[in-house]
Structures are given as structure tokens and as C-alpha cells.
Design brief:
Blueprint lengths: L1 H6 L5 H5 L2 E9 L6 E9 L8 E7 L9 E13 L20 E12 H4 L11 H6 L7 E6 L2 H11 L5 H20 L18 H16 L7 H8 L3 H12 L3 H18 L5 H7 L5 H12 L9
Antiparallel strand pairs: 1-2, 2-5, 3-4, 3-6, 4-5
Helix pairs in contact: 5-6, 6-10, 7-8, 7-9, 10-12
Length: 307
């Protein structure tokens, strides 16, 4: 699996791909945003490999605009059924189904230095993870790692969800940010999951934090206060803010702004909506307020994504 990850972007991968049948593909190439490729293949032959991930840190001091961070993952052994109407069946095969097929699922996530700058521009660099996000680590490197349960759950969610259109974009952006957070943990080590906030040790406490995240995503165009959010998830405001920061690595406000601006990029670039329409859809009181927030987050004006 590590070999496949390493050569996935090279011509050598053609021989591997020839053994696989593409059954699902999701690609996003929005400038200065997260760029990703999610592909699911089926294979007639058993694919026996350990699931693995890879973090690629590309650094060139002389060409800073070309610096990037890339995450690659490959998972084998999942099952795929092309007949969507018999999802609850227990028989293999059914009258209308050739049987579930073994899959090889391949993910690539590309983060430019300009995109990652939003996470570190006001942060004191205190560890290797911060240095990598800010492209202050002086040497390029590649790190391979096994997949922990948290990363596997995010990758599974990227393949198995029912969202479409704009809601799918919001969901994908949130999951990619989550995956980036968990993958950067691997720069230290693959340690057992644990939480500094004791209330997060309880599954109910964690569920309320994830519920809060989902509510924020549902209110992309209708801003919600932390007080309102805490009431909806029945959690003390202080606990909510601390728990959110520990699980997602960012404050509630910064997470919400990140998701709004990433969705704005999608609406401007992929859907070709006007700046006026996007501003209204995201709940801004004026175009000027939206444009200022967009430029602060992305470094460019909204009109620059129109084409």
C-alpha cells in the first residue's frame, strides 16, 4: 500500500490502475482552496495490503509560492454494491445485484502554502506541526503512517454520505479540515486517543461537540451565537468552547468563518454566482462586509474567482 501511495502521482501507477475499475470519483480544483481527489475502485483480484496514509511536505526556500502540503490515503477491503435499491439486503447475490465487490479507495488532498496561511498568521510557532503549516520547517520530507480510527471514520464519511450540491460542498470542506487536524498529529506519533478536557472522555460529551459542529454547518447562511449553540446542544458555553477547540483544533468562530469562506469560493468559482448573491446566501448585511471578510480569509477579492 505504501508503494501505491508513493507512486500514485507517477506514470508507474498506470499498471496498478489497469487492474482496477473506477466506480466513484469526486474532484475539486478551486484555486487557493483545498484541492482533492477521491476515487473508489473495484478489483476482481484480492488486494492484500495494510491501509496507510502519507503526508508530503514540499518545501523550496527559493520558490515559496510552489510550497504545498499533501495528504494521501489508500484503503482496501471495503465493500461496494452497485445496486442502490437493495442496500438493506442480506443475501449475496440478490436477483438484481452481482454481489458486493471489494474496493480500493484512494484519496489525495492538496493544500497550498497560501491556503494554510490562515491557520498560522497570528500564531506563535511553538512546535513542528506549527512550523510545517507555516512552511518554516527547513527541509522537505515524506511521512507514512497507519490509519487510526479517527482518520478512517472521516475517510469513510467522505465516501458514504447522502449530501448533494451545495450541502455536499459544505460537508466535504468540514471533513477535510478535520482530516488535516488528525493527520498533523502523526508528525509527533500515533498515540492512543485521549482528551485533556475530562468531560470529553464521556461519549455523550463528544457527541454534543460534534452536534454543535453540524449545527454550525447547517447555519452557514444564518449566523448563530455561541449562547444559542450551547442551548441547542445542552452544554455549558465554557465547556462547549473548550471541547470544540480540543476536538477540532480551532475556535468556534474561526471554524465557522473558515467554512463560510470555503463555501463562498465554491459558490463563486463552481456555481458562478455573483458576489451580491453569495453575500446574501451567507447572511452578510452588505457586500462590503462580505468582501472584506473574504479578502481577510483568502487574500484575494471575491470578484477574482469569477470566470
Amino acid at each position: 500500500m505504501a508503494v501505491l501511495l508513493d507512486m500514485w502521482k507517477t506514470q508507474q501507477s498506470a499498471a496498478v490502475l489497469a487492474q482496477l475499475d473506477l466506480v466513484h470519483e469526486k474532484v475539486q480544483k478551486i484555486p487557493d482552496s483545498v484541492q482533492y481527489e477521491v476515487r473508489r475502485y473495484t478489483t476482481a483480484n484480492p488486494w492484500i495490503n495494510d491501509d496507510a496514509g502519507m503526508l508530503v511536505y514540499h518545501f523550496n526556500e527559493d520558490k515559496p509560492r510552489e510550497n504545498f502540503l499533501e495528504l494521501r490515503y489508500c484503503i482496501s477491503g471495503n465493500r461496494y454494491c452497485p445496486e442502490k435499491t437493495c442496500g438493506q439486503c442480506e443475501e449475496l447475490p440478490t436477483n438484481f445485484c452481482s454481489g458486493k465487490k471489494t474496493t480500493v479507495d484512494v484519496f489525495t488532498f492538496h493544500f497550498t502554502a497560501s491556503f494554510l496561511h490562515q491557520f498560522v498568521h497570528n500564531v506563535k510557532l511553538s512546535n513542528r506541526k506549527d512550523e510545517v503549516l507555516a512552511f518554516k520547517h527547513p527541509n522537505a520530507f515524506t511521512k507514512q503512517f497507519p490509519l487510526c480510527l479517527k482518520k478512517r471514520n472521516v475517510l469513510d464519511a467522505l465516501l458514504n454520505h447522502s449530501y448533494t450540491g451545495a450541502l455536499e460542498n459544505i460537508f466535504m470542506n468540514a471533513k477535510v479540515h478535520e482530516l488535516l487536524l488528525y493527520s498533523l498529529d502523526c508528525l509527533v506519533d500515533e498515540k492512543a486517543e485521549g482528551f485533556a478536557c475530562k468531560f470529553l472522555a464521556d461519549e455523550g460529551g463528544r457527541d454534543r461537540i460534534y452536534q454543535a459542529r453540524d449545527i454550525l454547518l447547517q447555519h452557514i447562511g444564518e449566523p448563530i451565537t455561541i449562547k444559542e449553540l450551547s442551548r441547542k446542544v445542552a452544554m455549558n458555553e465554557c465547556y462547549l468552547k473548550k471541547g470544540f477547540k480540543e476536538i477540532f483544533g480551532t475556535t468556534i468562530f474561526d471554524f465557522y468563518q473558515q467554512q463560510r469562506m470555503e463555501h463562498a469560493k465554491y459558490l463563486l468559482y463552481e456555481k458562478s454566482l455573483s458576489v451580491t448573491d453569495v453575500s446574501a446566501l451567507l447572511g452578510y448585511s452588505s457586500i462590503s462586509h462580505f468582501s472584506a471578510a473574504f479578502k481577510k480569509h483568502t487574500g484575494i477579492k471575491p470578484c477574482e474567482l469569477l470566470h
